[in-house]
Amino acid sequence: MSDVIEELEAPPLMVQTSPVIELDDESLFQFCQINGELRIERTADGKLIIMPPEGGSSGLGNAELIQVFANWADADGTGRVFGSSAGFILPNKAMRAPDVSWVLKERLARLTKEEMKKFLSLCPDFVLELRSESGSIGVLKAKMEEYIANGARLGWLLDPVRKQAHIYRPKKHPETLTNPAKISGAPVLKGFALDVPAIWAAMEGH
């Protein structure tokens, strides 16, 4: 099955628009709205990243992750969970859309209703990226470092290809876990632990 998924997915396309076209945050938002079928991010230096749609395996994994995190967040009550359709403008001006993110409600409360309708100008407290079959682990690791450098308090990079989880925290070297049974989100995600084998199983359609 993995061979089929790999054929469906492709590396992201990098597009340089500056200096011919300068997209500020509002223009970028409008550009993404009229190209809603595309998954788009922006690097800190202004390049647009056009990502292909998810393959079936990645889609199943992301759906399972959103459900698990949303259930925990509802019970915890201190923050809100976002999926990959939510864009965040980081302090370094990059626009990223992590597969799963979590933001404290007190931080969201500082945004106006109009600001909530656009890309959110903040870095999530927690971010998670799920590697696809053909996704570059190097590119994803660089994104995780970017999240942490811009204010994320915890980041997880799940790699189903190698059955690994990479844990990122401020002022600490990344920690790599191979075949972990569970990953604790403490102290950022209080009381949360991810059943990692359940995510791998979901991606295999089990």
Q: What would you say this structure looks like, in words?
A:
This protein is of the alpha+beta class and 206 residues long. It has one domain: tt1808, chain A (Alpha-Beta Complex), CATH 3.90.1570. The protein has helices at 2-8, 25-34, 56-76, 105-108, 113-116, 137-149, 196-203, and strands at 13-15, 39-42, 48-51, 79-83, 88-89, 95-96, 100-104, 126-130, 154-159, 164-168, 175-178, 182-184, 193-195. β9 (154-159) and β10 form a beta hairpin. The longest helix is centred in the first third of the chain and has 21 residues, at 56-76. It is globular and about 50 Å long. The two termini are 13 Å apart. Mean pLDDT is 91; it is low at 1-9.
Quick structural gist:
With 206 residues, this protein is of the alpha+beta class.
Features:
alpha+beta, single chain, tt1808, chain A, globular, disordered N terminus, 206 residues, 7 helices, six-stranded mixed beta sheet, three-stranded antiparallel beta sheet
Range of strand content: 15-25%
CA gyration radius, whole angstroms: 17 Å
The CATH topology assignment is: tt1808, chain A
The amount of helix comes to 25-40%
The CATH superfamily title? tt1808, chain A
Domain module tally:
1
